[in-house]
Amino acid sequence: MSLFTNTTGKDTIRNAFYLFSPGVREILLASPFFSYPSLIEEILQINQNCLVRLIVRLGPATSPSALKKILLLDRMQIRYFTSPQYHSKIYIFGDNNALVGSANLTEAGCQSNREVCIQLSQEDDRFDSLLKLYNSYWNQAEVLNEVNLPQNSRHVISINIG
Question: What is the pLDDT of residue 109?
C-alpha cells in the first residue's frame, strides 16, 4: 500500500495516474468535481488500448467545457449525478491498483492541494468491494452526451442516488 499526498513532486496524485495507467485495459474514475481534461487526454495517449470510464457530479465545481473536451474522445465514457450526496473519489486502474482518498479530478486536487490518496492492490481484500461500489455508482448514474451536457455549471437538475 502506498500513500500519495501532493507534498512533493514525486508523490502527487497526478504521478500515481501515470504510474498505474500503462498496460491496463480499463480505468474507472469517480470524482464529483472535474476540471482536468488534460490528465485524461494524457492517460489515453500513454495507454492506446485503454477504455476510461468517468463518473462526475454536474454542479458548480465541475467544468462543462472540461467535460466537452473529453466527451467525444475515443475510448471515453462519462456518466453523471447531480446530487450533492455524490462525493466519492475512487480511481481504479485495471485489475491491478486503486486509489481512494480526498483528491478530486482537478489540477489542484491532483497536484497542489493538501490531498491524500491510498493505493490498494488487487491482493487487498477491499479491492473487489471497491470495484463493486464503483460499478453500482456507474449503473445508477446517467449517461452524459452532447444533448444533456450543461452549457455552464449553474444549469443543473437534481437526481437522487440510492
Answer: 86
Closest CA to 31 of 121, 104, 137, 130: 104
The type of residue at 146 is E
Q: Which three cell numbers stand for residue 141?
A: 448514474
What does each C-alpha distance from 89 to 26, 49, 96, 133 come to in angstroms?
A: 17, 24, 17, 11
Residue type, 5: T
* Strand ranges across the sheet with 51-57: 3-4, 117-121, 97-101, 90-93, 26-30, 51-57, 76-81, 142-143
Each residue's pLDDT tens digit, 110-144: 999 999 999 999 999 999 999 999 999 999 999 99
Instruction: Find all residues with CB under 8 Å of 90, minimum gap 6, and list them.
Output: 28, 29, 30, 98, 99, 100, 130, 133, 134, 137
Quote the percentage of the chain above a pLDDT of 90.
79
Whole-Å CA distances, 88 to 23, 47, 145: 25, 25, 22
Helix (H) or strand (E) holding 81: strand 76-81
157 pLDDT more than 70 = no
CA dist 161 and 51 (Å) reads: 25
All structural domains of the chain, each given as residue ranges with its CATH number in brackets, are 3-143 (3.30.870.10)
